[in-house]
Structures are given as C-alpha cells and as structure tokens.
Amino acid sequence: MRIAYVAPGAAGMYCGSCIHDNTLATALMELGHDVAMLPLYTPIRTDEPPVATEKIFYGAVNVYLQQALRLFRRTPRLLDRILDSGAMLGLASRMAGATDAASLGPLTLSVLRGEEGRQRKELARLTEWLAEFRPHIVQLGNGLLIGMAREIHRATGAPVVSGLTGEDLFVDGLPEPHRSEVVAELRLRARELAGFLAPSRYYADRMRELLEVPQEAIHVVPLGVNLKQFAVPAEGEGSSADAVPAAAGKPATIGYLARICPEKGLHLLVDAFIELADQPEAGGVRLEVGGWVAKRERPYLKRLELRVRQAGLADRVLFHGELDAPAKRDLLRRIDLLSVPTTYREPKGLSVIEALAHGVPVVLPAHGAFPELLEATGGGLLVEPGSHAALVAGLLQLIRDPGRRRELGRRGRQAVERDFNSRGMAERTAAVYREITGEERPDA
Description:
By secondary structure, the chain is an alpha/beta fold. It has helices at about 15-30, 60-70, 75-85, 85-95, 105-110, 120-135, 150-155, 165-170, 180-190, 200-210, 225-230, 265-275, 300-310, 325-335, 350-355, 370-375, 390-400, 400-420, 420-435, and strands spanning about 1-10, 35-40, 135-140, 160-165, 195-200, 220, 255, 285-290, 315-320, 335-340, 360-365, 380-385. The chain has two domains: about 1-225 and about 420-435, Glycogen Phosphorylase B (Rossmann fold), CATH 3.40.50.2000; about 225-420, Glycogen Phosphorylase B (Rossmann fold, 3-Layer(aba) Sandwich), CATH 3.40.50.2000. It is built from 19 helices and twelve strands. Helix 1 links the parallel strand 1 (about 1-10) and strand 2 (about 35-40). Helix 6 (about 120-135) packs parallel to helix 7 (about 150-155). It is globular, with a radius of gyration of 22 Å.
C-alpha cells in the first residue's frame, strides 16, 4: 500500500506525537508498505532514526507571515524556499517555546479552513506533491490539520484519515470567540474524513463528542514502542524492576518523564516527594525528572527547583532537562517507579508505555487513558486525580514494597512486549487502512 503520512513537527523538541508518528511510519515500512512521511511546520525531531523527507511543507515562517501579511500570500517559490530554509526554521523553533497557545486562535482557524484560509498557497504545494506520489491513503498527524482533507482528496482521489492526539486540550485553551469558531470548523471539516485513529477508548469517546462524528468513524489503535530501539530487558537482566530494595541499602527513586508544565503535574509530584522525604518508611527516597521545558514554562521549573532547595532536598533530586534516547533509557534503568500525575485527562500515555517496557511500574491518576492502560498491562497503581494524599499513599505503597514493584514491572513489561509494540501498532493501523480503502491483504 502506498501511504502518505503528513506529520507536524514540534518546533525542535522531542514530542510524543512526533515520536509516535516516526515509529509508526517506520513499522509500516518494515511491513512492506511504501510510506512517505511529510513534515509540516518544522523538521520532525525524534529519538529514533528519522524517516521523514527533508522537504518541509507549511514551513512555520511562511505560515506565520501568510497569516500576518497579505503580501506573503503571493510571494514566488524562490522566496518561499528561503523562508523554509533550515536557518529560518531553526529560528522559528527557538521562538515557538515562548508562544502562548491561547494566542494562536486565528492561525489555527485559518489552517483549518484549508483552501479558504490564508495558507492556501501552502496547501496547493502539498497537494501538488501528493498528486505526483499517488497515495492509496493519506493520514494526517492530528485533527487540527483536517482542513487539508478536501483538497488532498480532490488532488489524489485517495481517502484521508486523521490521527487524534490531544487536540481537545489545545482547543480548550483558546479564548473565545476563537474556541467556538475552531470547534465549528472542526465539526464541519470532520465530515470530509474517511476515518480517525485514536490512541485510546477514552480519547475516541472524547473526540466523538467534540467532532460530532458517529462511533464507527473513530478506530482505536493503541500506541506501540519499538522494542529493538528500547532494548527491552529480558527477565533477570537487571532491569529497574529488579532493583535492590531500599531496605538493603538502596533508596528507591521516583521518576518523571514528560514535558515540564503544570498540566503534566510535576508540581504535584514534587509536593508529594517533599512529604515522602520526611517519612522513615520512604527510606531516603530520591526523585529524577526528565523532560523538555518551553521558554514560557521556565519560571514554573525555577519555582519547583526553589521549593526543593528550601526543603533541604536538593541533593536528592535531579532535574535533567530534555533527554535524548540513550539518556532516557538510562533514566528508566535507574528509577524504581514512574509517576506523571497529570491535571488533565491524558489521551495517550507514551511515557507510561516506555517505562513499562523497561519493567518500571507506574503510579498514575485515574483519569483519561490511564485506567485502560493499567487495565491492559497490570503495570501499576491508579490514585484519585488531584489528591495530594492519594498520590503520596500510592507512591509509598510501591516505595516500601520492592516485591510488588518487581511484580508490577514484570506484568507491565510482558504486556508491552505482547500488545504495545510498534509492529502490532502498524498491523492494526494497516488493517484500518485496508478497511477504508477496500484493499485486501497482500497474502490474502
């Protein structure tokens, strides 16, 4: 099958959606499909070998200038190529971290309006390339791109599907009247899609309500990780699930692996850690934090670092910042449990699957995709969302019971190997594609 995968870049950061898109495209290629992964806005930055084309569509600088100034909606291709150069996109990436999502309403609405929006020149360039590629199906990386579907289908004749990755959080952060306008356009354009792929049952239900599409329009395809890339440890190879118990002289280490921002709940975890540090049962517990921080969130991180210092615990907490793949794997091998106590309803939970792949059990709030992830894996504990006492109690349960940590980690690792690997994700995705296009399996 010839597949075009249109994936938005994330302004130079390691982003869970980018990692997922690259992993899925790679696994589809390994199944024998012809896949072209086309980056939008900025290059795709991923912690695995990238498979996206070097050509950038909807370059971030061009998109912004076309939104702001009428002149740039008619500029020649030569100038567009200059604005899409690596130097210009690198500058855009550095500036993006300071952008407040609440200010992006007009631009979001314009891109959603597709051929009727201010970036119609970019859409024409994309559809021209796709028409030459002649895909059997086109997948858009997320629902905020569905304004492209009408022209893509018109140019290629191929059905267009879209991934769903957390659009509701972004949309709900837009001020009025932009939020209502964006929702109305999403619902209008959603009718033109051949289908949607959601990473969890929770998010399929959530987006079904937001988009007002029928139940059968959204297919659930759980996330998967590349087991080779993650080098999942076999039983007895010294994974973190087999860590030396704190009672034998090694303090337990709590880990956090996610973007550093209030909605991911790092402040809740820091507060819980500070309380645990005073409890003899916690046995000298430590905390390691890894994740990208946007420029606008740096004051938030500084406040947390100050809170740790004022509590006299700076020597027991490590703030690593952004981690590449080797550093992320090293962190997962060192920690004894992972917690990302999000304040919002997480639709995916990629870092949870990565932790379980290393035999690391998790403590998570009982909302969003987390309950079904733990139901499927048995790899951790759920606690009441937003409850400080519940988070402390859940963490303490695993800190003082290394045997239970090992058992939960073992279950989680086995479930990832069985049900949350990249090959299985690609096979389920290809099955959805075949259902939509009517193509039979190659070996049928």
